[in-house]
């Protein structure tokens, strides 16, 4: 994988962990192939943004390395991977990208959100993570059911293959301040009651129509 992505200067121990990722899956997606995809996607985006493609490619390949040892070490895989790579003098940019690709730490460089975006693209592309049609439909229905259970909600639609829930509320029952709270409450309930790859965006729409006639 390091040769395939042209990432050089990795220690043998890090290379061994990268190889171990071939035996790990996440929602049915092979973690090693996912890491290679993220490396290439990160480079493409970095090139478009005028950033250093080689740095992006390196961070992308290494972003999930913590998954190779998260069964042996306590903590989440971004933190585990970051702490492990510190032993091998990885750059602060790569370390921040590994630590922050799930938003666990604040990004201090433009590569971190770029790696996070590439990670999400690879994970959410059709066929990347196996999911039966029945489970997929149930997930969409559950999203709409959760949002529709809040007072003042008129309709809720799961869109973008379940990566966004669009909620329409009654302008008479929900004012602007309440709308923000409802959106937060829906997001919290989705987090508490559902399991899903990536993240789900909650978009709340409150429409007020004013009609007047010129005579």
UniProtKB/TrEMBL annotation:
Domain HD: from-to ranges: 31-124
PROSITE patterns (alphabetical): HD
Name this polypeptide is given: HD domain-containing protein
Matches recorded under InterPro entries: HD/PDEase_dom, HD_domain, HDIG_dom
